[in-house]
Automatic annotation (TrEMBL):
<dbReference type="GO" id="GO:0009089">
    <property type="term" value="P:lysine biosynthetic process via diaminopimelate"/>
</dbReference>
<dbReference type="InterPro" id="IPR023940">
    <property type="entry name" value="DHDPR_bac"/>
</dbReference>
<dbReference type="Pfam" id="PF05173">
    <property type="entry name" value="DapB_C"/>
</dbReference>
<dbReference type="GO" id="GO:0008839">
    <property type="term" value="F:4-hydroxy-tetrahydrodipicolinate reductase"/>
</dbReference>
<dbReference type="GO" id="GO:0005829">
    <property type="term" value="C:cytosol"/>
</dbReference>
<dbReference type="InterPro" id="IPR036291">
    <property type="entry name" value="NAD(P)-bd_dom_sf"/>
</dbReference>
<dbReference type="GO" id="GO:0019877">
    <property type="term" value="P:diaminopimelate biosynthetic process"/>
</dbReference>
<feature type="domain" description="Dihydrodipicolinate reductase C-terminal">
    <location>
        <begin position="129"/>
        <end position="219"/>
    </location>
</feature>
<dbReference type="InterPro" id="IPR022663">
    <property type="entry name" value="DapB_C"/>
</dbReference>
<protein>
    <recommendedName>
        <fullName>Dihydrodipicolinate reductase C-terminal domain-containing protein</fullName>
    </recommendedName>
</protein>
Length: 238
């Protein structure tokens, strides 16, 4: 596995690799000229690149995967249009996992919201007002987070009703909080997921990399990978 990015997430993924006995190479996203040469023996089609960098490095990461044949787990949540198109193009020949959020808890939060929307439809009751609130420390400038936007899109896609608000707060300690609040007259339901350590994301990154290794080409949302892991019972197996 190659991990692109020397930040906190990249470091957490490297620690997780060490814990699981996965050989990992760290690549500095600011110095792509130091990366393994295309066609060399360092990376190949059975390997996976986990991109923990920033949108500015996406093109170099895509070129590395195209040249080496490696799969890609794309962890940059705020990809620009060029990066998104590049991932789609790469997926024609390589497996690409798009991970707006890497953590198992976020997947379970989505599953809970899906179940709630199914039950509301089955009961035929009036829809509640839905709002989404995300909190990150002040070091995160991008807002709303891609995770919050995805929760809002999930609600709208299932109910036809957009959230009343998708709000952002920049305050407090790392790492993040994402909540969906459903409000009826006299009652509320909160579906919340809080992350206190990037180890949660790192665990998901390694799990998704294992899933992607050797897979046929295609563009796979992280939650689709979790769906398959849940169906097959392979999530805990190396």
């Amino acid at each position: 596995m190659a991990v692109v990015g020397l930040g906190r997430l990249g470091a957490a993924v490297l620690r997780r690799c060490a814990e699981e006995g996965v050989a990992a190479l760290i690549l500095d996203s600011r110095r792509p000229g130091t990366w393994p040469a295309p066609g060399g023996a360092v990376l190949g089609p059975r390997d996976v690149v986990v991109d923990c960098s920033a949108p500015q490095a996406t093109r170099a990461v895509l070129d590395l995967c195209a040249a080496s044949g490696a799969a890609l787990v794309e962890c940059v949540s705020n990809l620009d249009a060029d990066g998104s198109r590049g991932c789609a193009d790469l997926a024609a020949t390589r497996p690409v996992v798009l991970a707006t959020n890497l953590s198992l808890g976020n997947y379970l939060q989505h599953q809970a919201l899906l179940r709630v929307t199914d039950l509301l439809a089955a009961l035929g009751v009036a829809l509640p007002e839905a709002t989404v609130l995300e909190r990150h420390p002040t070091t995160k400038a991008h807002r709303p987070s891609a995770t919050a936007a995805a929760l809002g899109a999930l609600w709208e896609g299932r109910t036809g009703q957009p959230p009343a608000d998708v709000a952002s707060l920049r305050a407090g300690a790392p790492v993040s909080e994402h909540g969906v609040r459903l409000t009826w007259a006299g009652q509320e339901l909160h579906l919340a997921h809080d992350v206190r350590s990037l180890d949660a994301a790192a665990e998901g990154a390694v799990l998704l990399a294992r899933w992607a290794a050797g897979r046929p080409p295609g563009l796979h949302p992280a939650h689709a990978a979790y769906d398959e892991l849940a169906r097959t019972g392979q999530g805990g197996n190396p």
